[in-house]
Sequence to fold (209 residues):
Amino acid sequence: MARYTGSSCRMCRRENVKLYLKGDRCYSDKCAFERRAYAPGQHGQNRFRKMSDYAIQLREKQKVKQMYGMLEGQFRRYFERADRAKGVTGENLLIMLERRLDNALYRLGFASSRTQARQLVRHNHFIVNGKKVNIPSFQVAPGDIIKLKEKSSKNALITDNIEGAVRRGIPSWLELDQNNMQGTVKALPNREEITLPIQEQLIVELYSK
Fold:
């Protein structure tokens, strides 16, 4: 299935939670979820049906998948890797998703959304440990240094994003050096630092059927 190209705000309304897919717009009074906090569609305001356990699990999986901007096959492969790894499967899954390069750039404030971060990576604006990396799914590790290329340092979009990063806050497993336009991965993220409204156990139950 191709990547979803419809309205991002529609996805937030479908999942009944802010997914912060539109960058600064999500923090403003223009946010569609704030203005129309009901499901999309002609009968959206009348959807009060009780959901089955399977539907609840499915919606949780869809929510996380959309949050990180992934397709079903790719998300499934992340789950399989998390299931094979030592530790709690659900936590392993979230940590792997957080370690994606596009997510790390978003968390550092170089991009206003993960979608924008993915595009910046694809367009070769960043280097990791001195080497070009243009793969959004690249897994960062402790000690990695993510630096904005010198020729991109005057990009107004990126500099404006960094100025607004303070509002979101930078997680403790990352460190931003604004003067040198680079970020450092200090440690692996842990579950307590992932403050998104995610119930990962529902995803594990869904894929374990």
Summary: Residues 53-67 form the longest helix (15 residues). The chain is about 40% helix and 10% strand.
